Amino acid sequence: MDAFVSRKRRKISTSDEHEVNATISAQNNHEAEEQSTDEKLALLSSVFENTSQEMLLEALLTNDGSVERALDALLTRTSTGPSASPPRKTPNVLGIQSSLNFSRSPSKPDSDDPFTSTPKSVPRPLTKKGKTLYLYNPADIAAHTPCTILHNFLPSHLANDLLNELLPETSTFTSATFRLFDNIVKSPHTASFYVNSLADAQTQKSSYLYNGSTLSDVREILPVMRRVSTLVESAVNTEITKRRASYPGGVKLRYQSPNPWIPNAAFVNCYDGAAQSVGWHTDQLSYLGPHPTIGSLSLGVQREFRIRRIVPSPDLDGLDPDGAEARRLKSENADAQGQISLPLPHNSLLVMHGEMQEGWKHCVVPASTGGKGGGAGITPHSIAGNKRINITYRWYREEFAPKYIPDCGCGVPCVLKSVMRRRETLGRYVWMCQTQGRVNEESSGEAGSDGVRKGDKAEEQKVETKLDDKKGCGYFEWAEFDDDGVPMWLSKARKKEEAANGTSGK
Ligand SMILES: O=C(O)CCC(=O)C(=O)O
Ligand SMILES: [Fe+2]
Q1: Which range is least confidently modeled, 46-50, 132-136, 342-346, 434-438?
Q2: CA-CA distance, 165 to 214, in Å (whole number)?
Q3: Concatenated DSSP letters of 151-187
Q4: Domains, the chain, ranges and CATH?
Q5: CB atoms near residue 332 (< 10 Å)
Q6: Contact, 296 vs 352, CB < 8 A?
Q7: Gap from CA of 433 to ligand 1 centroid (Å)
Q8: Closest Cα to residue 162, out of 199, 194, 197?
Q9: Which of 34, 82, 93, 452 is the most buried (most CB within 10 A)?
Q10: How far is the CA of 84 from the centre of ligand 2 (A)?
Q11: Which of 150, 148, 290, 174 has its CA nearest to residue 228?
Q12: Best substitution site from 307, 340, 362 to test ligand 1's pocket, by max atoms within 8 Å of Cβ?
């Protein structure tokens, strides 16, 4: 029995009771399925004894939990693969080639995503526990990470204009705050949020919540930022198309939007000096939807952006989840596959693709301690001095406007999280109470957003607030989407409407 499922108090908050019942019964079905996952894995292991549990689990997931089909897929891969040797003698049966580091080439990046609808190969981790691999070359980055990078993205005068437009703004930026267990903590860098119009800024301030609160500082996009936004839009769409061609079967990820990416919001981050940073986090999915793409433009001082895979949580059975041993295991586990460091120079555009947010965490390490060789520091930039400015252009999808997001009864929209740390529920999404604290952090494994800079504790400063009075209501429900990532109820309603229109038009 999954503790996550059983511990939660379920509230029915939507007007459509039928939908809610369907959700709960889906949960129950899921619990039943979960009981036999270990057995299924054991069965597969007995045939593919040299294959990692992750690969076997992956095979199960891509075959909807069917052992038979997973077995077939694994055998087919083996017999048609380069070596065509029997399973027991080929450890990397899921198509891992013996290329130097990884299972995919730049032109054929692999998706390691449990959400894709087609079977795929599973990459052997490029990095090792406790090690950091530095990648600079765009081809390497495309091949080995969920990102692509475009160096010298803007004409240099435009990059400088943008920097000159934003630098004066940064003096009025404030520290991003986020929730870490019961405390509100401050990220050691500053940020502000920009949208396309004053009207959008108003809407943001009144109805979009980040970590349980609205943002008081939402600004209208500035003229150069707006010009650059259209360039980012076109480049990102090109990169999405290229990336998609390399996914198994050339199809988009399951739940990823098939529509063009249209940036309509941007967080602007400022890192003033070598010590400023942002801790490990994933970006909040609530308004972006599943498998979002983000265009991240860097200006000024070059800094190190790091990524690491989210790995399923270690078994903490019998341990105090807050105890020293549990914490040691969790932090050891977090780094189980090492880290990849991507230096982001002035005027580079990093595209974080659809497989990034649900499968990987990212951070910007302090240059004073995290740089290559330990104390590398930073090289001042001719215009920005010691500052790095980063703009993360985002597309807030209409389907994820607050009016469409479940409200748990606390009067605020729920927050969308993917479940990537718990093997049993890997690849699923959950809507949960936004004002919820530590219970959910532990349970879902994944937290983190733009407002939720969930990073290494040492990197953040604890701020005044204790959230004793705001524990949240415990509400959660599994989030169900159609293949394009549209919430199922909305997708159905749209189809109904289309059908009605079609009929009336005849
Ligand atoms: O500064 C960066 O490159 C990353 C910023 C980031 O992760 C965010 O805005 O969510
Ligand atoms: Fe982020």
Answers
A1: 46-50
A2: 26
A3: TT-S-HHHHHHHHHHHHHHHTT-EEEEEEETTEEEEE
A4: 3-19+402-496 (no CATH), 41-105+114-122 (no CATH), 132-400 (2.60.120.590)
A5: 12
A6: yes
A7: 24
A8: 194
A9: 93
A10: 42
A11: 150
A12: 362
Using a 6 Å cutoff on CB, does residue 393 contact ligand 1? no
Give me the pLDDT at residue 435, please.
Answer: 66
234 class by beta-carbon count within 10 Å (0-12 exposed, 13-18 middle, 19+ buried)? exposed
Residue among 445, 170, 401 at smallest CA distance from 264: 401
CB atoms within 10 A of CB 149: 26
Backbone φ, ψ for residue 264 (5° rounding): -135, 10
449 lines ligand 1 (CB under 6 A): no
Instruction: Quote the mean pLDDT of the chain.
Output: 73
How far apart are alpha carbons 80 and 91 in whole angstroms?
A: 15
Q: Tell me how far apart the alpha carbons of residues 329 and 332 are, in angstroms, rounded to a whole number.
A: 5
Q: Which amino acid is at 201?
A: A
Q: Ligand 2 centre and the CA of 506: distance in Å? A: 49
Pick from 288, 315, 275: nearest CA to 460: 275
pLDDT given at position 324: 80
The answer to whether 448 touches 283, Cβ cutoff 8 Å, is yes
Band of pLDDT at residue 336, cut at 50, 70 and 90:
confident
Least confident among 5-14, 315-324, 403-412, 426-435 = 5-14
Q: Give the pLDDT confidence score for residue 164 in this predicted structure.
A: 98
Residue in the structure block whose two tokens are 């939007």: 257
Write out the two tokens for 176.
């991003």
Please work out, in degrees rounded to the nearest 5, the angle formed at the alpha carbon of residue 431 by the alpha carbons of 427 and 437.
Answer: 105
Enumerate helices (H) and strands (E) in the chain, giving the number of each. Answer: 14, 19
